[in-house]
Amino acid sequence: MKKILIFICLLLSFSLVFSQEEEPYQSLEDMMAEMQKNDTIYKVQFYSSVKYISKFKDVEKEFGTAEYVTSYKYQGLFRYTFGEYHNDPEAAKVLKKKLIKLGYTDAFIVAFKGGERLFDLVIYKKYDF
């Protein structure tokens, strides 16, 4: 997925170089950030707590990394998610099943856009989360 995004960014950068109408991006990171702000990002929420938790050793052991564990605060609780799938809810479903097998039986998929969690039930019903 990352290679595809880089390829798309390169194509866009070439088109911007030859276009006199648009301002080119300052860097590849800026271009990728601009593209990704329109993506729907799917993550699996697997835990919530009043206290901040810095490590989930069981997740790190099972998946070889905890790099993709993130948290956000909502209604007074820290919510912990794992994974980050741009426009790919099916991949999030697979990860959800793995986290449930790991013992996080209340795991569920959450969607984000522009850094904000989406609460539109149509999205969740569409993909049968």
What does this structure look like?
- With 129 residues, this protein is α+β, with helices and mostly antiparallel strands.
- It has 2 domains: 2-35, no CATH class; 40-126, Sporulation related repeat (Alpha-Beta Plaits, 2-Layer Sandwich), CATH 3.30.70.1070.
- It is built from 5 helices and 5 strands; from the N terminus they run H-H-E-H-E-E-H-E-E-H.
- Strands 2-3-1-4-5 form a 5-stranded antiparallel sheet, with helices on one face.
- A hairpin with a 2-residue loop joins strand 4 (108-113) and strand 5 (116-117).
- The two termini are 22 Å apart.
- The model has no long low-confidence stretch (mean pLDDT 80).
Short key terms for the protein model shown above:
129 residues, alpha+beta, Alpha-Beta Plaits, 2 domains, five-stranded antiparallel β-sheet, 5 helices, 5 strands, 40% helix, globular
The proportion of strand residues reads 25-35%
Mean pLDDT: 80
Roughly how many Å is the radius of gyration? 17 Å
The CATH class name of the largest domain reads Alpha Beta
Low-confidence stretches: none
Biggest beta sheet attributes: 5 strands, antiparallel
Which strand order do you get reading across the main beta sheet?
A: 2-3-1-4-5
What string, H for helix and E for strand, traces the elements in order? HHEHEEHEEH
Q: What is the number of strand segments?
A: 5
The total number of structural domains is 2
**Structural class, from helix and strand content?**
alpha+beta
Annotation field: number of helices: 5
Shape: globular
- The quaternary state of the protein chains shown equals single chain
CATH topology of the largest domain: Alpha-Beta Plaits
What share of residues is helical?
A: 40-55%
